[in-house]
Amino acid sequence: MYSYKTGIAQIDSVSGGFEAGTNILILAPPMSYADQLAYALIKPLQGEYSIVLSTNERAAEVVDNFKVAGADKRFIGVIDAITKSSTPSIADTTRLMFVSSPTDLTGIGIKFSNMIETIFEGDFSDGEAGLFPPPIRFCVNSISTLLMYRRLEVLYQFLHVLTAKLKKIEGVGIYLLNSESFDEKTLSLIKQLMNCVIEVKMENNITYCRIMGIRGVTGEWLKFTVTKGQVVILP
Amino acid sequence: MISTGINALDQMMGGGIPGGDKVLYSMEPGVNGQFFMISTLSAALKKGLTCLVIMPNTTVDAFRHDAITMRVDKRTLCSNKLVYIDAIDAERIQKGASSKEAKARDWKARIQKICRDRHIDVIFVYFDLLYEEFGLENGLCILESAREERRTTLILEHLNLEGAPLVDRFISEHSFDLVLTIRSSSHPLPPFSYFTLLHTSWAPIPIRSIPFSVQEGQIIPYIPKIVVIGPEKAGKSTFISHASALGHPPVIAGCPEEESASASLDFGRMRWKDFDIMLYGIPGRAEFDTSILPTLRHAMGVVIVIDADDPGMLPRAHYLAGLVAKQRIPFIIAANRKKTPHVMTEKEIRSSLALPREIPLQFISATDRDDVHGVLESLVDYITRIYS
Predict the structure, then answer these.
(1) Is B58 on the interface with A (CB under 8 A)?
(2) Which of B29, B57, B63 shows the shortest C-beta gap to A161?
(3) How, if at all, do strands B192-200 and B208-215 pair?
(4) Of the ranges B72-86, B190-204, B266-280, which one carries the lowest mean pLDDT score?
């Protein structure tokens, strides 16, 4: 089974990376650079593909983030739930798709399926071939925004479908959730859909993370930073 | 009758949706089923009906743009026959009302006023947010209030995250007249979408599931793979060449035609009543038996062609029918009469092949296009019942 390298030695040396089919929740307070951590973890390596569902940033900004991190944009797809509200006539392309708003779960589901289908058909990357079956890293940035628009129960059911689909195609999913804005019930319900949780905290302007749910990885707090799309664990 | 804009679906329902009925398009997450609603809206507008579209999760401009990409005529979307309640209106209601009851009242008043002032014939509703806000009972009550004075047709699209029990409630508790579910499956093919005509109140139409693809803004129901097999020289290649608009039995250079047809795979494609159908023929000689199972993979149906004049090929046909039955693929027997009168009766053939009564058997001439199409029509009908 395929392993998705993380660039974090504490994970890669123990398990070879995230196992195919893993769904990971990043639980982080605001302004803790959690989105940078998420983007670093879903940056596509050689032959891999990434899809981002963005409810916070426009597609162009998401792609720019990856470009700065040195990723090949031909292997990156974005489902943008922001831009269409201000630019209704914006048209979908193979790798950039738009839904009317974060409330539009129907549209999000369809665009997600379309992108996966295009990747499997080999029509995603302008003729550049990736691996087959295609390893796909998927990120939802963020569940917090989706929760502002849809009820927890509805979103839970929707995420249940998405996480199951990712397992089926042996992809890996990363989901961002603000740890300070939601109650315990919300957090624990969303956690039920995940195999792994990465908690992030900030103390004295230093970011820490701890990884739970990966066999052999201790749940200790690690200082980290993200540089050019790479997670660096600090001593 | 209001057309769905999909001929095959209209025909299955006896011409379309009766005016004044309540319709549900229930979509599974991730399935590209939005065309059903758009296609029905487009057909209603073409017919000159006045329509109200309630879409609380998008704006008019975004909706129009999406509909145009789905090949709906821009002029009809901007015509005065079409009225919208969109996300901006929904937000006004949200902000203007202090309680859930007040919101429900605002929704009702707004919809009733539009229906009365504009003499609305059909209401199209993207139901997700109303369902989430008010629940099924109250959400539908808001919409029903607009139908008190006049039996307006009501058509709902809903992302169903709760599965069959929710669909059952639309039918049993709220008397929906037509329920069409739109789902995807990875069996028997790699992922494909299909719709199921689950319930119709106006006629005892059997439950049917039909795979579909979306091509150039149209829903095309399709049967992706029908395999034609049978004993040698039963008439398979002739069958395919007469079924197909595009296909033909391949001819190998240097081989007599008859010989080459019995030594290579045939391929054909036909369009029947809006269905796109692909046909694959396997040579009947025993040396090709190793290619039968791989070819049957992902097949949705099989035609077993036998020579109705030749009882000697029945043991071979029996063997092939057993092979297909073991794969649980629906099949039909086409008994090809090369001479008349044919020597075997239906009873004799059924008995020799141990065919249950429900498996169709038809006498045909493989050179008669109408006969061949008749067989495929029966098979498609049989398939759509079996996969339901």
Answers:
(1) yes
(2) B29
(3) antiparallel
(4) B266-280
Give the integer Cα–Cα distance in Å for B98 and B103.
Answer: 7
Q: Which domain holds residue A25?
A: 3-233
Two structure tokens written together for A86:
């201000």
Q: What predicted TM-score, i.e. pTM, was given to this entire model?
A: 0.81
Strand, coil or helix: B35: helix
Query: What pLDDT digit, counting tens, does each position of A40-96 carry?
Result: 999 999 999 999 999 999 999 999 999 988 899 999 999 999 999 999 999 999 999
What pLDDT score does B11 carry?
81
Nearest partner of B94 among B86, B103, B85, B104, judged by Cα: B103
Residue numbers in B near A112 (CB within 8 A): 30
For residue B253, give both structure tokens.
């250079």
Q: What is the interface size between A and B, counted as CB pairs within 8 Å?
A: 67
Amino acid letter, residue B263: A
Summarised one tens digit per residue, pLDDT across range B89-139 is 999 999 999 899 999 999 999 999 999 999 999 999 999 999 999 999 999
Indicate if B223-386 has the same CATH topology as B7-216.
yes
Note the ipTM here: 0.90
Residue B382 burial (C-beta neighbours within 10 Å; 0-12, 13-18, 19+):
middle
Chain-chain contact of A100 with B32 (C-beta, under 8 angstroms):
no
Residue B200 Cα to chain centre, angstroms? 15
Confirm or reject CATH 3.40.50.2000 for domain B223-386, answering yes or no. no
Q: Which of A84, A90, A106, A160 is the best substitution to test chain B (most B C-beta atoms within 10 A)?
A: A106
Q: What's the one-letter identity of residue B173?
A: E
**Which residues, including other chains, have CB under 8 Å from residue B381's CB and lie 6 or more apart?**
none
What is the tens place of the pLDDT at every residue in B27-52? Answer: 999 998 999 999 999 999 999 999 99
Measured CA to CA, the distance from residue A81 to residue B362 in angstroms comes to 54
CATH number at residue A207: 3.40.50.300
Please state the domain count of chain A. 1
Q: pLDDT band for position A203 (50/70/90)?
A: very high
Q: Where are the domains of chain B?
A: 7-216, 223-386
B36 closest CA partner among B5, B81, B61, B10:
B5
Closest CA to A68 of A225, A232, A226, A229: A229
B7-216: CATH number: 3.40.50.300
Pairing of strands A136-141, A49-54: parallel
**CA of B90, closest CA in chain A: separation in Å?**
12
Strand A136-141, strand A172-178: pairing: parallel
Residue A140 has pLDDT above 90, yes or no: yes
Q: Which residues contact B216 (CB under 8 A, 6 or more apart)?
A: B71
Element at A148 (helix H, strand E)? helix A143-149
Which residues in B lie closer than 8 A to residue A104 (C-beta atoms)? Answer: 57-58
Contact A211, A194 (CB under 8 A): no
Contact A81, A55 (CB under 8 A): yes
Q: Residue A84: its chain B contacts at CB < 8 A? A: 62
